Amino acid sequence: MTTESEITPSAADRHHPMLKLALELGPLLIFFFANLRGAWLVERFPVLLELGGPLFVATALFMAATVTSLVVSKVMLGHLPIMPFVSGIVVVIFGSLSIYLQNETFIKMKPTIVNALFGVSLLGGLAFGKSLLGYVFNAAFQLDAEGWRKLTVRWGIFFLFLAVLNEVIWRNFSDDFWVAFKVWGTMPITIIFTMAQMPLIMKHTVTPAGEAEK
Predict the structure, then answer these.
(1) What are the two backbone dihedrals, phi and then psi, of residue 104, each rounded to the nearest 5 degrees?
(2) pTM for this one?
(3) How far apart are CA 148 and CA 154, in angstroms?
(4) pLDDT digit string (tens) for 89-142?
């Protein structure tokens, strides 16, 4: 089982929490506003017309913003966070396919694939005695082994729920609704779910040895 000492956050993670948040949310906000003002962007920058419609323009800018955020993360924090890195790889691959084939399906399925991958990885990791979530949330929480195990189960199931939800949304609603929900729907749902885990987190929080001696 993953122990507390294995998931101790780095100094950079502790000192730059808002930077981490901005790097993760920035590309999503760019994706939303680029899709919303796609026609305006094409009018101001005609070269973007070669990419296709507003969703393809937004996808290209989303890819660029994602790569930029990963580079900044590496430079400022000294490492690449696991979840944004995996998500970034899928964004570049599926975004490129969407633009090249002029098929929106690829970029729309990206959240499904990423969330399903995270869900299966988290739940599968437990089968090998590893609470992988500890490596993702190490800068935010310090929990005992049992706390990480329970939290990993819950997040694994939640990621699978998000994967199914994305499939329902993009297959049954308009592009604009899907893009808006991706930013303004998924985020509040995730925040609510995270807040609902606070009783479990508080119960299993441990004090790092260095701080306990102070």
Answers:
(1) -70, -15
(2) 0.74
(3) 10
(4) 899 999 999 999 999 899 999 899 999 988 998 899 888 877 777 766 665 667
